[in-house]
């Protein structure tokens, strides 16, 4: 028997603000109806939970684990611009034509990557 993901948790100074921000980023996760001051989250496909837990200390070093996002209805570069407009910051721009990714950070500094759309999602046929 193997394991399956149950949830993803992130430390946060303001869990509710993080949920509000990530709800604008992800269309397959929705904010939970009840949000607490110490813990708030979003529920996604298969009931998976993305939670933000209040901690007193600020983020100080690079994440050891991060999310990778794959845009569905826009290009990688359009999605990067959308996320920057929402308040993300560019950490490392590793984009090249038809390859690479951008490393961004959410408003509290948690890094995540924006990848290219998959060939299927982009409508590209590879026969």
From TrEMBL:
<dbReference type="InterPro" id="IPR041581">
    <property type="entry name" value="Glyoxalase_6"/>
</dbReference>
<dbReference type="Pfam" id="PF18029">
    <property type="entry name" value="Glyoxalase_6"/>
</dbReference>
<protein>
    <submittedName>
        <fullName>VOC family protein</fullName>
    </submittedName>
</protein>
<dbReference type="InterPro" id="IPR029068">
    <property type="entry name" value="Glyas_Bleomycin-R_OHBP_Dase"/>
</dbReference>
<feature type="domain" description="Glyoxalase-like">
    <location>
        <begin position="8"/>
        <end position="115"/>
    </location>
</feature>
């Amino acid at each position: 028997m193997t394991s399956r993901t149950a949830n993803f948790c992130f430390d946060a100074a303001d869990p509710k603000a993080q949920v509000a921000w990530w709800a604008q980023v992800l269309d397959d996760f929705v904010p939970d109806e009840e949000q607490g001051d110490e813990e708030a989250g979003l529920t996604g496909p298969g009931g998976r939970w993305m939670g933000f837990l209040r901690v007193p200390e600020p983020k100080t070093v690079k994440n050891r684990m991060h999310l990778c996002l794959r845009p569905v209805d826009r290009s990688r570069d359009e999605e990067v611009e959308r996320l920057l407009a929402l308040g993300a910051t560019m950490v490392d721009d590793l984009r090249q034509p038809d390859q690479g990714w951008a490393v961004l950070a959410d408003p509290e500094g948690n890094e995540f990557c924006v990848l290219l759309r998959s060939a299927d999602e982009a409508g590209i046929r590879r026969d």
